[in-house]
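so im writing up the methods section and need the FHA domain-containing protein record in one place, dumping it here so i stop losing it
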Amino acid sequence: MHFLEPRTPSLLRREPLVAGAPAPRGTLFALGEDGGYAAPPSPGALLLLGRNSPDVHVTVGSGDWHVSREHAALRRDGTGWLVRNSGRLPIGLPGRPPLLSGHETALAPGYTPLHIRGSRLHLVELLVSTGGPAAGVVRPDTGTRDLVWPLTDRERLVLVALFQLALLGAPDARPLSWNETRDALAAVPGQPAWTDRKAEHVVDVVRRRLAASGVPGVTADSAPPDAIKNNLLRVLLETATLVPPDLRLLDTGIGGG
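--- predicted struct ---
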């Protein structure tokens, strides 16, 4: 197996090289807060996830007693990968019911964020290599530019609060209302008082900046009002400007407000 450094970029942005070369099709990457591993697509290959760092490959929820010592097992079975919940808390996977203790399910090729909510939200990024670029990185119509739009820490926090359901992969995910966004920001540690108007203003600044750079559909002069949030969400997800690990900001906060 190949170790992934803690500073490895989000798997949604880039598929890591293995020993300096592209990974074989079917390779499983698992990346947590403290790094992770790439496991080859070999029969019986196994990666363990949990809070007991010495006994697992990928640490999840270190110091959070709600997370089990070994909370999940990722196993190569036949031609695919299975994830089994060996802990107590349910495991969240996009577009599926919660994976309960003792249950297992197949991982689809491509990118999957896995999350466990203990005393706070814990995320592990999974990627089953398809032999091509990671989702959202390069498409045939992608222009030549930096793919990730720059955001300040404050802007990223507000956008993550606004679009958290989509980042979690919730069924029928939608942007939150401004009141709901305000309430989500109010629950973030270390944040000053937020109002719905302050949150909306931060997002307005981002929309105008993207529009000035040629992004269509994110301002009132280029899209109906009820489509603007969804258009902005699509741009931020397709360019991997927002990625599921950004959800950690809702539990850890940022410096200042």
